Amino acid sequence: MGTGSPLRVAIHVFDDAEELDVVGPYEVLSAWRALSDLHPDVLTFSTDGSGVRLAKGLRLLPDRAAHEVGPMHVLVYPGGRGTRRLLADPEHLAWVRATRATTPLMTSVCTGALVYAAAGLLAGRPATTHWSAFDELARLDPSILADTEARFVDDGDVITSAGVSAGIDMALHLVARLESVDIARAVRRAIQYDPAPPV
Question: Best exposed site among 49, 135, 136, 193 by fewest CB in 10 Å?
Answer without folding.
Answer: 135
